[in-house]
Amino acid sequence: MVKYGLDYTRCRWILPLLLGIGVIFGIIALAGRGWLESQTLPYVQQASLWQNCRRPDQGGEWSCESLMGYAWGRAAAATYLVGFLLLVICFALAIIAFAIDTLRFNFIRGIGGLLFVAAVFSIMGLVIYPVKFSSEIDMTGINMFSWAYGFGWTTAIMEICLGFFFCCLPNYEDQILGNVKPTYFYSSP
């Protein structure tokens, strides 16, 4: 990407594309019912960021209670949701930044800083949830934090990695814009 510059058509949209994938993973984490699940048969517990569902036996009906009745449930949902909204804002800003013909590298560094803030909020929600859930809600059987919780962590990791990339990209402004003469490491005998 640095070799050809950001005007190279296949490389220009990689960062907004990766942010878009992070947004999709965040939506899956927010909507998924697999934050916590029973690991073995009979499956008796399943929880999302928003509610906890149980059933007494294999053929029974699921009974759900909202986690928004707990202060920690509201805190976990709010912090993860703020991190997700900041990620969506960064995605929109990245599309604007890369659609402009003349890149504003300070603007790109600001997106990186905002991604770090989003990662902090996401990680706070992802840490509050399992700590308080396992200490305040009775769990029956063997349970595991499952696929939707994993998508939440994947989103947070993508926010951190893309934040580094957005912050470091302006350091290579001359190389990206093609303002540097090539150096050759050939010496004549």
From TrEMBL:
Annotated InterPro entries: P53_induced, PMP22/EMP/MP20/Claudin
Similarity remark: Belongs to the TMEM47 family.
GO cellular component: cytoplasm; desmosome; plasma membrane
Regions crossing the membrane: 12-32, 77-100, 107-131, 151-172
Protein origin, superkingdom: Eukaryota
Entry keyword set: Apoptosis, Cell adhesion, Cell junction, Cell membrane, Cytoplasm, Membrane, Transmembrane, Transmembrane helix
Annotated membrane topology: Multi-pass membrane protein
Pfam family, one: PMP22_Claudin
Cell membrane listed as a keyword: yes
Name listed for the protein in its UniProt record: p53 apoptosis effector related to PMP-22
Principal place of residence: other
Organism: Acrocephalus arundinaceus
Originating gene: Perp_1
Alphabetical list of Gene3D superfamilies matching this protein: 1.20.140.150
